[in-house]
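Records of this kind hold a single protein each, on a pair of labelled lines. Below, a sample record shows both lines together.
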Amino acid sequence: MGDDSPLAALLALLFVLLLLSAFFSGSETALMSLNRYKLRHKSRAGHRGARIAEKLLERPDRLIGLILLGNNAVNISASALVGVVSVQLGGELGFAIGTAVLTLVVLIFAETAPKTMAAMHPERIAFPAAYVYYPLLKILYPLVWLTNALANGVLFLLGLRQAGADGYALSREELRTVVYEAGSRISGKYRQMLLSILDLEKVSVDDVMVPHNEIVGIDLDDHIDEIAALIRDSDHTRLPVYRDTIDNVQGVLHLRRLANIFTQLKFTKQDLENLLDEPYFVPEGTPLSTQLLQFQKGRKRLALVVDEYGDIQGIVTLEDILEEIVGEFTTDPADDDEDVVRENDRCWLVNGTANIRELNKAMQWSLPTDGPKTLNGLIVEYLETIPESGTGLKIGGYPIEIIETRENRVQLARIHAAKAEAHTEID
């Protein structure tokens, strides 16, 4: 009976040591697996465990040093204890068997199982463990400091430096991945808006502008009655004012300023000119993110896009940029857009002047956008000639049939939404 009591005590102590080994192994994995951004959010929200864990992770070298000191001390003690018990029970053969059994037990129950559980539920283990490690680090700080000093010295000799706070900063592409992986936590509409904001630097003003030939403005050479009719029927709040051509722009008219004079029986072109704002020009290729800030800084809502020679290429407005973020203010672009007419469930009739990026967004297509801006330009560039009616081709996997060609450009084309596997490049 007297011999059994020490043996039972040793086995109980061994069990406790294995539990401590499992704690050290699992808590290390849990703390290192914590999402740094979720951790920061919980910490700022007042979660005490998260705050302590965040403080510990500010110096991960000290935390790892503390955990390894504890884990190695426990494992060495367990090995020594198993050696004593094994020799008492079976001599040298018992020692060999005991060592093998201990290795298997530690591997399964003190390493693999707790680390797997910690990786699956890091917060459940990390936050309670932080309460243990924080005071323990203060108690054992001299030993931990010495250990880390030696380890950091070795890393220094190898040319390695400790990562600063910027080590956890996300790149734009990484942030896109985070937004994608948010899944149901963010609605599809909001997720698309966030992605559009991240892509603003990739999109330039000439991608969303109203092209030169589609600019609606006031020609001062027109009769005053024609000008008045245009103003009454205008859907815009701001219109460029020019003489003869848009290239000779005089300024921008805010229609709200016409309220006082428009009620008069007669008003003159001079009255209009007196209300003009100075035209605001921006170079083509300006990223939308930059232009959005410029609009805000200059309190502008409309800009004329010019090329390197100063020639006007189009008009971009604040609304154009906002629509790039939130989408078109329509329910079904295919129903409301005059450039797109649905023929059936599989194909659409598309105007050659239709903007490719707008088509892709509205119809969920993936036509190439790294070249021409319009469907006509894309087709002509691809064929390297102006096609005749009836010509068939496939671009980006989408079968396209030329319906009408007029004035040296593709007027109308039929696009099949379904990507055809068996379709020749050019029929």
